[in-house]
Amino acid sequence: MKNFFVAVAPVFLVGSVFATDYTWREAVDGEISNPDVWAPRGVPGEGDQAKFAEQGAYCATESADRTVGSVSVTNADVTIDLGGKFWTLTGPLSTYNR
Fold first, then answer.
1. How far apart are CA 36 and CA 3, in angstroms?
2. d(Cα 90, Cα 17) in Å, to the nearest integer?
3. What span, in angstroms and rounded, lies between the C-alpha atoms of 75 and 51?
4. Who wins on pLDDT, 54 or 15?
5. Which residues lie closer than 8 Å to 68 by C-beta, 6 or more apart?
6. Which of 15-19, 27-31, 75-79, 84-88 is predicted least confidently?
7. How wide is the angle at C-alpha 33 spanned by C-alphas 31 and 34, nearest 5°?
8. Coil, strand, or helix at residue 45?
């Protein structure tokens, strides 16, 4: 009788292990949780970077508490209105006025 051996490797996907840099797409007001206002399309989350670099005056509003990896603001004319909600940053907050 021949022995038969099968190796099985379990694979678990718990979420993305890669951070993404999300950049606000246009100088228009919008809701931070709207994936259409970010490039690439999606919403920044834990481990990701949220970048507000688009030139022009606009307001990014928030409607929920959120954990974000880091935030970069390089536009002095952007307003980030958290509306009483909290952002928890797991990385740096950087600002620079061009």
1. 56
2. 15
3. 10
4. 54
5. 44, 45, 46, 48, 49, 50, 87, 88, 89, 90
6. 15-19
7. 70
8. coil
Could you give the CA distance from residue 48 to residue 45 in angstroms, rounded to a whole number?
5
Residues 13 and 83: their CA atoms lie apart, in Å, by 34
46's CB contacts (< 8 A; 6+ apart) are 67, 68, 69, 90
Q: Which amino acid makes up residue 26? A: E
Pair of tokens at residue 52: 């507000």
Q: How many CA atoms lie within 13 A of 55 on its CB side?
A: 2
